[in-house]
Amino acid sequence: MVKNAVGRELPEKIGNYVVKPYKGPGAELDWDKPACTNRVPRLSPAGGSKVAASLKDAIIKSGLKDGQTISFHHCFREGDHIIGQVLTICRELGLKGLTFAPSAVVNVKNPSVIDFVKDGTITNIQASGIRGSLGDGVLEGCMENPVILRSHGARPRAIEMGELSIDVAFIGASAADDYGNCTGQIGPNACGSLGYAMIDAYTAKHVIVVTDNLVEYPCCPASISQMYVDQVAVVEDIGDPAKIGAGAARMTKNPRDLNIAAKCAEVITASRRFKDGFSFQTGVGAIPIAATIYLSEKMEEQGIKASFTLGGTTSNMVDMFRKGQIRVIESSQSFDAVAARAIIEEPNIVEIDNALYADPYTKGSILSKLDFGLLAALEVDTDFNVNILTGSSGEMMAGMGGGPDVAADAAVSIVVVPIVRGRTPSITKRVFTCCTPGDTIAMVITEAGIALNPKYPLYEELKEDLEKTNLKLVTIEELQQLAESLCGTPKPIETTDKVCVVVEYRDGTVIDVIRQIKK
Amino acid sequence: MELKKPAVAGTVESCDCQVSIFPNPGQGLDVSVESNVKAIFGDSIIESTKDELAKHGVKDAIVQINDKGAFDWIIRARVACAAYRAAEQKFNWKEVE
Fold first, then answer.
1. Which pLDDT band, with edges at 50, 70 and 90, does A344 fall under?
2. Residue A140 pLDDT > 70, yes or no?
3. Where exactly are the structural domains of chain A?
4. Nearest residue of A to residue B13, measured between CA atoms
5. Which CATH class is domain B7-88?
6. What confidence score (pLDDT) does residue A249 get?
7. Alpha-carbon gap, residue A125 to A81, rounded angstroms
């Protein structure tokens, strides 16, 4: 056993996986080789078409073999119908031992991914999160090899360092032409940005674009260019448009969430960094969306405009853009139908590669230029460590998303969280799973007050700015005690020694593991 | 306090719990819990239920708790209410400090 820099006990090896313990944020890599890619230069078919007879034919022609790695993007979210189709065909072809490597959490049902794990089609998973029946199955110990979870910024780095080596990438697109140019911006199933598919397209050995909407050549805009695409498979159905592009999220009416959101907008406004040309990222969820709306009001009052906003785009940000409050929206993902359409309607709403968004090991991610970043959390502990993966009973709830990336690179990283949810305390003595190190968190905003992290580099500046306001500053220990006085002391979740999930930090070191839950 | 009939208190709204109680003459206490926080608070819910019943002198009862994440004092109040309904007795508010 070794202890990493956030005090987590880790085995030195988990099967064949060699654990490199997390040493701290902002570490340089032990790596001096060129970036890895599996893309092979070869003569392209002149003139003709890359359209395969069927998805099955495309998979056969790709040469996919037992034990290889297949990847998917998550831009269709819960509405995705491609993963199920591809896995079903892999099973029909008798393929075994595949590594399943989607760009984020996928919770596909009917069929569920767990079915393909149980029959041996899939033996390894690398993702950003797992949940539902797959999450339950994994924590019950149904997989021999641990699932590897990474943040959005960590995935492209892992690909470029060969830790995730993609053989066949399946890229769902709401429109594609017969030569492989494709996009998510047009067509009946438009999902907006294909930011998470780009690194897969650039580095996979074989790239199959899957669409239900074949358009005349050339497909314009082309989010992924023909030069990266081997085949185009036309299927009847790529997804459920109601789930891919649900309407704009409405403002929450929950008074507690509104209270936290209002405080969040006040904190940003009180900062000396809130001035013309500032930048922010809020994300999706009830509190972030309400915070965005409150921030918009404050910006209007004070006549302050933002230079850019980043990451997942929501309709509220598009509203702010159209009011002239944001100059550029850098969109790696579109969270609703309004945001999905906006990329094609507005030249300054830009589709960006996820690596450009969040990968610290490129020559510069946009996150490095971000002033304020909002983070959601399931739990925060008195060391400010954040859990965004596991719920109160140890169950897999969500994905890493860009949380660890935003925390590390935004100048001011703000966690917004109620101190209790139902009877579950959100501020605890020790998070069940550490995903984001406390050293990278500036503050936690709750309905019961704001706790600044004394270890954060900008602590003095933030304290000085916030002391000029009427906002209530408390310690994180006070918040934890208040939560416990309401909920009672939760019984610790018991686990066995078997490691089911490895949680990697941005640099590929291990920040935590999740062990099999004792039943 | 002797239970005369089955009784129910509480709801299955979020952050509440529904307590069903049945007479169990001479058979002691049998408490079962369904809860979305059973893993971390299941034992605590059973303990509080037994403690609350003891306070009101209930020795024999079957109690089924369908908990939706209620705080401890809510669980205690629902248990006491169900017990008094089952015993067909009026709660003496003067006992409450």
1. very high
2. yes
3. 48-244, 255-488
4. A422
5. alpha beta
6. 67
7. 19
The reply to whether A493 touches chain B by the CB within 8 Å rule is yes
- Cβ within 8 Å, pair A486-B39: no
Q: Does the beta carbon of A486 lie under 8 angstroms from any beta carbon of chain B?
A: yes
Confidence grade of residue A248 (pLDDT, cut at 50, 70, 90) = low
CATH 3.60.15.10 holds for A48-244: no
Q: Report the residue of chain B nearest A484, measured CA to CA.
A: B71
Q: Is the pLDDT of residue A319 over 90?
A: yes
Cβ-nearest to B44 among A393, A424, A488: A488
Q: How far is A138 from chain B (nearest CA, A)?
A: 18
Does A422 sit within 8 Å of B14, measured CB to CB? Answer: yes
> How much is the average pLDDT of A71-86?
92
- A139 touching chain B per CB within 8 A: no
Contact list in B for residue A490 (CB cut-off 8 A) is: 37, 40-41
Residue range A255-488 forms a domain whose CATH class is: alpha beta
Residues of A in contact with B14 (CB under 8 A): 422
Q: Do A491 and B72 touch (CB under 8 A)?
A: no
Matching CATH topology for A48-244 and A255-488? yes
Partner-chain contact B43 A491, CB within 8 Å? yes
**Using a CB-CB distance cutoff of 8 angstroms, which residues of chain B are in contact with residue A392?**
37, 39-40
Tell me whether residues A491 and B36 touch, CB distance under 8 A.
Answer: no
**Residues of chain A contacting B15 with CB distance shorter than 8 Å:** 422-423
State which residue of chain A sits closest to B70, comparing Cα positions.
A423
Give the model confidence (pLDDT) of B19-34 as tens digits: 999 999 999 999 999 9
pLDDT exceeds 80 at position A124:
yes
| Predicted pLDDT of residue A245 | 62
Please classify residue A377 by burial: count the beta carbons closer than 10 Å to its beta carbon, then call 0-12 exposed, 13-18 middle and 19+ buried. Answer: buried
Contact B15 A393 (CB under 8 A): no
HEC sequence for A193-243: CCCCCHHHHHHCCEEEEEECCECCCCCCCCCECHHHCCEEEECCCCECHHH
The confidence score (pLDDT) of residue A106 equals: 67
Average pLDDT, chain A: 95
Euclidean distance between CA atoms A469 and A519, whole angstroms: 49
What are the boundaries of each domain within chain B? 7-88
Q: State residue A398's pLDDT score.
A: 87
Per residue, the 3-state secondary structure of chain B, as one string, reads: CCCCCCEEEECCCCCCEEEEEEECCCCCEEEEEEECCHHHHHHHHHHHHHHHHHHCCCCCEEEEEEECCCCHHHHHHHHHHHHHHHHCCCCCHHHCC
CA-nearest residue to B14 within chain A is: A422
